[in-house]
Amino acid sequence: MKITMKPLISVVTSVYNGASDIGRTIDSILNQTLSKYEYIMIDDGSSDNTYEILTRYAHKDRRVKLLRNERNLGLTASLNRCLYVATAPYIARIDGGDIAAKDRFEKQLSFLGGDSDVGIVGSNDIVIFFEFGTYRLIKRPIDDGSVVRRLMYRNCFSHSTLMIRRSVFDHFGFYRTRYAQDYDLIIRARQKYKLANLPDFLCVRVQRIQDITGRKWRDQELTVFKAKIHHFNKLGTDLMTRFLAASLYMPMSALRMAVPSGFKRLYNRYISDHVPDGFDYDRLGDYYQLLDKLNKR
Fold it and tell me: CATH 3.90.580.10: does it fit domain 9-295?
């Protein structure tokens, strides 16, 4: 009789019209040093050949479980569909087009296994600006105290780096559509669990100007703002910290919202490091080399 090993991690990705980039994301997951996981992918009503690409991977690797929305439902609803069928005690997130370091799951699972008080762990990451051939290192606060202080002002996690205990969802419910789904979940989780980021660079995010992050960043700021207002007293910080955050957040948020998109593009183009000469965006090994180089600094 054939025995099926229950996965340790359920990896979750929602894709909408991601045919040009999704292959490198899937390959980076299937190349993980830790292999006991299931990869739940959902095509969110794509109009390109995304679903056909996902189907080919599902046929090649039985760890890939494929769902499909007949029409576009959006990221939050799509992720929740994946969570309904996830079976593992840990949930790992990654967005289509992003690349995970080969040892990401191994490092994050080891960390969570060694500290049962932590409910969510992320990591540092790298953002590559595709059109400009540049990149920036995003260094996150590491320990719970530093994370909570930063959360008073803004989200200090990259959704594509998160590994979350299933018990967080069991206790607090799935993602909610009213607020920025990742920030809202993180704040709710902090009522029971500690939060952390690993100091390693475990993810590369490739950002294009036409991506939602580039086109709708002000809308994202507004959803984060609504989540902050709703959850302001739930972070468990002292009264003085909350007072300072309340005093500073509004002008800081207004300033961020007022920054012209053109200025952000200039910054990303000219005040960022250049990717190595000959960098091939379709070759997974080039991303691994960049990650290895930066993690050895």
Answer: no
